Every structure is written in C-alpha cells, then in structure tokens.
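assembly run, all chains below
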Amino acid sequence: MSPRQKRLSLIAGLISAIVVALALVLNAFQSNLVFFFTPSQVANGEAPQGKSFRIGGLVVPGSLKREGDGIRMQFAVTDQAKTVQVHYQGILPDLFKEGAGVVAQGMMQTDGRFIAKEVLAKHDENYMPPEAAEALKKAGHPVGAPAQFQKAPTKP
Amino acid sequence: MTAELGHLALALAMLSGLCLAVFPSLGVWRRDTRLMAMASPVAYWQLLLVLIAFVCLIENFISHDFSNQLVANHSNRDLPFWYRVAASWGSHEGSMLLWILMLALWTAALAAFSGKLPQSMRARVLAVLGAVSIGFYLFALLTSNPFERVVPAPINGRDLNPLLQDPGMVFHPPLLYMGYVGFAVAFAFAIAGLIEGRFDSAWARWVRPWTNIAWGFLSLGICLGSFWAYYELGWGGWWFWDPVENASFMPWLTGTALIHSLAVTEKRGNFRSWTVLLAIMSFSLSLLGTFLVRSGVLTSVHAFATDPTRGVFILIFLCIVIGGSLSLYALRAHTVHSSQAYGLLSRESMLLANNIVMVVAMFAVLLGTLYPLALDSLDLGKISVGPPYFDAVFVPLMLPALFLMAIGPLSRWRDTPMLPLIDRMRWAFAASLLIALLLPFTASEDYKPMTALGLWLALWIAAAVLLNAAENMKSPSARMDASRLLLQPGSWWGMQLAHLGVASFVMGVSLVNSYEIEIEKKLAPGDVLKIDKDLSLRYAETLQRRGPNYEAIQVRFELLEGQRVVGELRPEKRRYNSSKMVMTEAGIRRSLLGDLYIALGEAHGDGWLTRVQRKPAVNWIWIGVLMMGLGGFWAAGDARYRRSPVTRFAAPGLHQASSKAEGQTG
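ok done. output:
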C-alpha cells in the first residue's frame, strides 16, 4: 500500500470505529440515563412512569418500617415540602440513618409507590449526597456546609 | 517546627523545579554543556527537598501534631501507626504532596538512568519534567498547603475516614500515583522529541521502558484499588464504573494504546504522530483524573473538601498542558512524518486496531463520566450514568479487540500471508471453541451463550500464547526444545505474560458475571442456609471483639459440606470510637475456584440481616491484572534497552541504516 492509501485506510478505520462507537453510545445513553427528581417534583407528577429514576432528600425520622423478615421495608423521603414513600428489599448501607440524607434509585408504580432497586447513603459522617442537598435547597431548606476545623486565622 | 521546616523545604523544592526547567533549556539553546549538565544534580536536589517535606508531614501525623490542620482533620490519637503514615496521603493536600514526591522520584530516576541519552535530549526531557512540577508546586503552595496551622490546636483529631483504615490505603495510592505520574516521563519525551524533531527508533527505545514501567504501576494500582473495594465496601463488586475509577481507567486505556503504538514506532518507524498524541493524551488524562478526583466535583470516598479555587487552578493547568503541547505538535508535526508501507493483515494493522479500540473506549468512558458533570454545571438537571451504560458500550467494543489480540503477536511486520496464518492457528481456534462450548455444560446452572463467548475469547488468547511459545521452541531441525524460550527477549516474555493476564481476566469476568449467587436473609444463631447442593452455612455464634480504635461484633459462621465442618467465616460490624461510624467488614473464604462472601447488614430481632454471595473465579480477575502489570515490568527489563548506543551503532552515520535493518528482522 502506498503511504496515501495507508493514510486513507487509517482514516477509514478510525471513522468506522467512531461511527460504531457513537451508535453504541447513543443507544446505550438513551436507555440508561438516570434522571433525578426531588420529592416535590415527584408529588407534582413530573417524574416518569415505567422508567428508572433517582429521588433524594432526608429520611423522615421514625418512618422506617420493616416487614417480619427484616429484608423488606419502607421509609419516607422528604425535601421538607413533600414526602415520597419508598419501598425497598435488601440490606441498607451502613450510613443510612433516619433524619440523614439519602438517594434511592428505582421506579414509580402505578399505585403511587416508589420501589427502589438501590439505596445510596453518604460516604462520610459530615457529608450529604449532592442530590439530597439539592432537593432540600430547591424546597427552600438548604443545609449548611460540613463542620471542619477551620484554617488558622490570618491575624493572631 | 517540623511543619514550618516542611513548608520551607517545599518552597525550596519549587525553586529547584524552576532551576530544572530553566537552566538546562538555556544550556541547549546556547550549546553550553555546563548548563545542560546541571539537570541531573538539580533533579537529585529536588528529590531530596521534596523527601524532607514529605517526611515532615509524616512526622506530624506520627507525633499527633494536631496544630497541623491536616492532622487535625484526618488523624486521631487512637489511629494505629501505619494508618497514621497512610493518613498523610489520605487527604487532598497530602495526596498532592504525594503526587509531587512521585514526580520528583521519576525525575531523579530519569536523571540517574539516562546517561546514554544524547546530552541535549536528556536536558530537554528533564526540563519538561521540571516545568510540569512547577505547576504542582504552585498548586500545593497556593491552594493546598499541607502544612497549614490551626490556632488553637484541638486536643484530638477528627480521625481518618474508617473506610480508609485498611492496608489498602498504605499501598493503593502510592502505586496508582507512580503510574499516573509516570506518564509524565513519556509526555516529557514526546515534547522533547517534538522540539528536537527526533522520533527515530532510538527515541522509541528510550521511551518504551519508562512507559512500560508507568503502565505496570498503574495496572497494579488499579488492581489493588479494585481488590480493596471488593473486600472493604461489603457489596462484593469488583468494579462499579464510579467516576473515580473511570478517572484512573482512562489513562490506563490510552497508556495501553501507547505501549503498543511505541512498538511500531521502534520496530518500523511508523505511527510516530499517533505515539506522540497518545503520550500527550495519557498524561493529560492523568491530570484530568487528578482534577476530577481532587477538585470535589465528584462525590466519593476519594473526593475531599470542596474548594472551587482548586478546581479552577487544575483546570487552567490542564488547559496550559493540553493546549501548549497540542500547539507545539501542530507547529512541529512536519518533523514527525512516518511512511513505511504495511499490508491490511500485518502486525502494524493489528496494533492499529488495538489503538483505535482503546482510544474509542476511552472516549466512551470520558463521555459517560463528563456528561453528567457538564449537565450539572450548566444547571440542566442532575442525571447519573451507571454501570448499564458502560457495560452496553464496553462489551461489544472489546469483543473484536480480544479476538484480534490472539492474532496480532503471531502476525508478521509489513505483511502476513493469510492462508499460512490460518493454517498455523486452526488448532488453537478449534480447541478453544470446543472447550468453550462444552465447559458451561459442566456447571449445574442454565447454559448461557455469553458465558461460552467469554470463555472462548479467553481460551483463544491463551491458546495463541501457547502456540507462540511452541513455535519459538522449534529448533532449526524441527525438534521441540523448551530451553530455546530462554533465548527470547524480556519484551517477548512480558507481552506473553500480559496477554495471558488478559485471558485470565476475561475468564474471571465471564464466570463471575454468569454464575454469581446472592442471598439476602435474616439469620439467627443456629440457622442453616443452603448455598448449593453440597454447601451450607450455619450461624454458629455471636462474638464481641475490641480492635485498636473500634468495637466489633463478629458472627462466626461454619461452612458445612453435608454435616462436616469444612471452614468458617467471620464477618464483622465495627463501630469506630472517635467518629462513631459503623463499618461492615466482610467475611471471605477465598479460593481459586471462587469466593464465599458474607457481609452483615443490621441486627434484626435475635439475628442479623445477612448478605451471602458466591463469587466463582473472581480472583482470576485480579490475578489477570497482576500478570498484566508484571508483564509491563518484565518487558521494561529487556536487555536491549540497556545496551549502550555506542556498541549498537558503531558510527553516527550508520544510525539510520541499522535501525532500518532491525525493522526488517524485528
């Protein structure tokens, strides 16, 4: 092959690989993007039916109720304005706590229950999942920044 | 005082970085050998000064100096010794200092082992590394000083996040950073080559061992990170497509492309522009990874306190590095021409296919990682892109690459006649296909076509490695002689080991994805849980245990085969004294065939909510990646990289001719 042909074949190879990848990516994107909704948005009916999405907020204190087997449970998630009932089957993360921030991913049922496939809590005591913080902020109840030891004052 | 000493050492180190960037370049420009010769001693001084700063920080942590803000926020009086050492890089500021230390290490190593390089090249490469280091010194000193004081000093620290209190924390970040920062060397060689207009096979031979070592470290770092996440997080997963994992995976992908493209540049003088671009890309992605992980735009254990100025600084730095190096490339592209012809079926075309797949895969990961961030920062809504997306994109991309991976090492440079190649490989093809189709029948579960496909590709790659070895064992008299393999160079061994590692990895992934079992159930003392037809698990007793800085409840499970006890597992629930954080410590029974994995959820009634998982062949995944990393080191140890250029090329005039001749034989 002449250098010109070689370059052409390289470009053709690259373009076809990129076209294939783009097709894959767009296809996967369409079916796998997960959107986030606040409890208020869910209560207003903005969230989709039959498609997986995330909700976030605070776990309402005292709302966690387990079935006899302990594995099936429900709890309420609030942004201080509206509340959504979340049903979940499985083991909760270590840092799941009533009154603390939480994000749940799952689907809205036709009867208005949210069935979560996945429950995410924070990684650190002083840390709020950003989606949960966002939900509270939107509903007008922002949370403060985590307490850290502050920098030394510049003037002693 | 130690903190101030460390701060001073860091500032002086920045000065030496400045000297390293300026004087050797000046020396090349004015053809002053004394100025060029300054590069090595300055590189050693820089390492010494950074080491002093780093030791000062570690001393602060070891001696519980809570007047250092970093120690106050990330350590505690009860923290065991080795975790205090590791805590020094368990924060944003400390990890930046680790970055700087690694860069100084690589720079000094380059100064020490580059005696054979032409003096101007050596001076330029070291100067580029010096220039890169300035960016990081400025970043550390201006926005993330690890020696900031708190007044008044607290009596005790806030403690290291319990998730990080693990031996993994001691080894994972240094290994990963060795890999990340190591790509700076390939980057520096690319920039120096662009300035000098030199990209011959000698240039490639200088870059290859450094790139292989960096890639090996990155592989080991990622491997350890994955292994750690598997046993520490209690979910039993080995890869989550978390943005932080993606941040380390992207430079690995382009780094993999780079080490393959460098082979073509060395042996055939081709793919030069490609190699330069991949070197620039790999280092830029390392910087991007640092930006993503450290600026707080991502949320995970790896992301520390959010400070927008830091993010902006790294973003500007990133723009300078990428923009500067690409403009230089555009200006000097005419010096990078390569024009060796090759056929459609040749080692070059196979390596090109590898490069295209790796780069396309990198862009797919980049899109999935950055798209949610872009939407968020433009206030267009919060979305997340999870594992389903990456699986859907990655699997179809990698299947053809894995198929070609077996053929590549068996094909010849320039052109490979098709029919003899098919003739050589038909037994490998038939045998791997047959075993892969039949093997899933031996498992008791349903037959899954995807399992057979994964097994076939793994066996196909392994069969090609064996075939390659067998062909190299054949003596001229057609007798098989295994000792002939010892004549093969280190790069051959490294490649075979790494490719075998890929086979092991694919095998592990296929088996664990197809046959893993997960049971979530409440178990109380005396309960017996059936796992499969032979094995069951009995809740034997609940124990209390006291660790150095935590209290733990441990459940002892007995593993039963029929009625016989064949082993025990001890998952724990820990509560850390200072942070009051609760942590799950999984109980794992490991074997090559597969793991049994138990994690405790919460106490419920008289027992525990328990997650029991069976993970067939999961360890093959990490063994595979380990083999890849070691393969990189082995290839870097090839004797030809150490041969002195004087014995190799008798006279400078022969240079071109001999490198061409080697291209024909290689």
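Chain B touches chain A through 59 residues (CB under 8 Å).

Chain B has four domains: 1-165, 175-403, 417-516, 521-617.

not gonna interpret more than that til we talk
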